[in-house]
Amino acid sequence: MDIPSNLLHNCSINSERQNITVLSVMSPIGVALMVLSFVVLWLIGKLAICVWWRPLMLERELRRQGINGPPPLLLLGNYVEIIRLENIQRSIDMDAFRHDIFQRMLPFYTKWCKTYGRRFVFWEACEPRIAVTEPELIREVFSSKLALAFGKSSLHQRCCENLLGKGVAMANGESWAHQRRTIAPAFHADKLKGLAGIMMKCTEQTILRWETSLQQAEAVGKDEVEVEICHDFGVLTADIIACTEFGSSYDKGKRIFDLLTSLQELTLTFAHFVWLPGSRFLPTSWNRETWRLKREMEKLLKEIIEERRDLLKMGKIESYGDDLLGLMLTESEGGSALGDSNHDISGIHSKRDKGHAAIRRPCFTTQQIMDECKTFFFAGHETTAGLLTWCILLLAAYPEWQEKARQEVLEVVGDIRHHENGGRKQFTELADALPKMRTLGMIINETLRLYPPAIVITKYALEDVRIGGDLKVPRGASVWVPVLAMHMDSELWGTDAHLFRPERFQHGVARACKHPLAFMPFAHGPRNCVGQAFAVMEAKIALSIILPRYSFSISPAYRHAPITLLTLKPKHGAQVLLQRIRRQKEAPSPS
Ligand code: HEM
């Protein structure tokens, strides 16, 4: 049927008039309210998907595969139970310097393992973690093949946002691959040798402080003094990383690290609230203090970066230098101070790599350089301080190993204080001699086995991943590897797994236990610790300077109570008694 055109015209005029009337009737406040309610509804919908719908789907998927676990609470997951069990353990000290600390450190794991088997799921807020201990599965998760499929979860990233920003340790996918390629060569053996001098000088500073205390004790007729090495090694490793990162800009670098330390303390205190959606945007006193510290720290970092750029522009320096900052600055301008950046992670080829050389090497922005600087400080400071602390505590408890290590150092490099005027040659000689210190290497490995600074490693699935043929890790779930449990597993290490026996490493790491990958203090694969060689070199240098000069025994004040505060630490500090070693035939000083 034909509709007369004038009728249609009249109709459309009428509806337009109605629309205009509706809109003109609504006040601006009404429009704003309407928009606001849409936004609120959208936010509620999004929140419901994140905290309820998606976790529900993940839980169903895992249950379908026969992976069960303790029932999670909405929003909190199993946090309440985890914290409750941890608090019980933390409130008591151990009765002796025993090393079976696994039950103490991961009480919830031991409990749920018994109920649900070794492969089970638990929830940190809205994120499921699948506990996995089969070495072959772990090998696959750490492999190059899956390096881009696993990464860091958003909860993890939120937790560390103020400390690490989007640096390599928190990056995912292609962004991670680029950052890793760029920084990895800075940690290669040839570059590290050049840092031996800094490591020696910083250790000398620590020793100077001990000397002052010893002289005061000797003045009142005592021949030993108590030192708290957890603090002292914290200062030492912070000094080393500040010098190696910023070189000549050390003073400002030190101030930055003080700010970062305060930021870390704040973050740790309030870490339990990070799962609350939006909590980090609220103007609470904690957030305001965090923002202030972050602003001040980034201002200083920018100043250091700009100063270095200006010096080069004015021709006062020939290159950006070979401290870590210098290497990254060269890269930021498209240079190649870091050389061919494909070493460590060969086998990972992102989509962009193929054929696009220009895209393959995008430059670092100033923000990225700042985030990398923060990352090196955090990743490289407490971890190595922990290694040194536990190592000296163990040597204090096992004097026969202390003496073996001392004799080895004396045989390989002698008492290093006699070469203080040796200059650069002496530093490279020391760096070259480090691999010969095999006993020290075995002691360091055994320390890292019993007291690994990172007691768990979590790998978040950025896409659906199938591992071991039978396990599908859905996107949004994580594989959770209890490193400490693997290191203490008597099936892998034998019935003496809980004992300090450095000799188990005498034929190398691969033959120390039944599976070559069961020892993983630095993780494995392309996303392992980029600073591994740096850390071992630092520890060996510090020990080879300290051991020939002093002997250690455990102080009666020491209470054995390991806890995790980012890394594994002694809760009440690490008090040892320090005594000067007087050798009968002191070699004459070359000076
Ligand atoms: C005893 C000392 C150290 C231990 C036990 C250790 C352990 C680890 C572990 C287990 C990881 C993997 C973490 C994960 O995937 O969740 C890691 C990553 C990392 N470590 Fe270390 N670390 C140590 C020292 C250092 C040092 C000295 C530096 C730098 C100066 C450093 C820089 C890094 C960086 C940048 C990453 C992230 C690598 C990436 O995601 O590609 N670490 N470390």
Number of strands: 12
Give the helix level as a range of percent.
Answer: 40-55%
* Name of the top-level CATH class of the domain at 29-153 and 455-496: Alpha Beta
Number of helices: 22
Strand content: 5-15%
Structural class: alpha+beta
- CATH fold naming of the domain at 29-153 and 455-496: Uridine Diphospho-n-acetylenolpyruvylglucosamine Reductase, domain 2
Gyration radius over CA: 28 Å
Protein name: Cytochrome P450
Transmembrane segments: 29-53
GO molecular function: heme binding; iron ion binding; monooxygenase activity; oxidoreductase activity, acting on paired donors, with incorporation or reduction of molecular oxygen
Family: Belongs to the cytochrome P450 family.
Can you offer a commentary on this structure?
Belongs to the cytochrome P450 family. InterPro entries: Cyt_P450, Cyt_P450_E_grp-I, Cyt_P450_sf, Cytochrome_P450_Monooxygen. One of its GO terms (cellular component) is membrane. By secondary structure, the protein is α+β, with helices and mostly antiparallel strands. The protein has a domain of 167 residues: Uridine Diphospho-n-acetylenolpyruvylglucosamine Reductase, domain 2. The protein is 54% helix and 8% strand. Helix 10 packs parallel to helix 22.
